[in-house]
Amino acid sequence: MAGPEQQNKHSHNLNKKKVLVVDDHPIVREGLADLINKEKDMVVCGWAADVPQTLKAIKDLVPDVVTVDISLEDASGLELIKDIKAKFPSLPVLALSMHQESLYAERALRSGAKGYVTKHEATKEVILAIRKVLDGQLYLSESMKEKLLYHFVGDTAPDDASSPIHRLTDRELEVFSLLGQGKGTRQIAEHLCLSVKTVETYRSRIKEKLNLHSGPELLRSAFQWSSGRHQTDPL
């Protein structure tokens, strides 16, 4: 939930833009907070690690922008972004993640984010992304902008990978990711608040879209993809 020590420490910074950091890794949160708090015009007003904490922190702290990790331990960052946009439509959200930009950036924008930046980007790029989103602009890397422009005109970017994993819906991709983390069908059903039958249907769709022919093949592919931390597509 929102860190009270951070709130008290920065309560006097009334002229600074308030940033709420949503990430379930303490070290990442602290690193991002240190980075943001060095700026003269913005300050981290608090943090959150899951959906309930995030929604409560937004109400309590009234941030000017929220950074959301795409992959939270107990929830999908994409679903959280959708919740934020539904409940706080004027609040800008920046997706900040370690995951592959070509796979997640467009999904984040469709969910309601105003930008997407990977955690391995230089610190100046992260700050630039936050500033752009605060100013009402969209932020994407130059290569991602080019890909989206190609897609917009119905063409394919020269270096655009044709991996079948791009055909998965957001929910199918979430199920695939959870399979790669070693979760079984019943665990996934409980995690996503779905029926076991619904998860089994998603598994079948994923196998069909990825041209996989068995359950073990699906699990092996999901594990390989997940263990690669989504930086490359093994399919």
Task: Describe the protein.
This protein has 235 residues and is α/β, with parallel strands linked by helices. It has two domains: 4-150, Response regulator (Rossmann fold, 3-Layer(aba) Sandwich), CATH 3.40.50.2300; 164-227, Winged helix-like DNA-binding domain superfamily/Winged helix DNA-binding domain (Arc Repressor Mutant, subunit A, Orthogonal Bundle), CATH 1.10.10. 51% of the residues lie in helices and 13% in strands. The protein contains eleven helices and seven strands. It has helices at 4-9, 26-37, 51-61, 77-87, 101-111, 123-134, 142-152, 170-180, 185-192, 196-209, 215-227; strands at residues 17-22, 42-48, 65-68, 71-72, 75-76, 93-97, 115-118. It has a five-stranded parallel beta sheet with strand order 2-1-3-6-7, sandwiched between helices. Strands 4-5 form a two-stranded antiparallel ribbon. The radius of gyration is 18 Å and the shape is globular.
Outline the fold blueprint.
Blueprint: H1 4-9, E1 17-22, H2 26-37, E2 42-48, H3 51-61, E3 65-68, E4 71-72, E5 75-76, H4 77-87, E6 93-97, H5 101-111, E7 115-118, H6 123-134, H7 142-152, H8 170-180, H9 185-192, H10 196-209, H11 215-227
Parallel strand pairs: 1-2, 1-3, 3-6, 6-7
Antiparallel strand pairs: 4-5
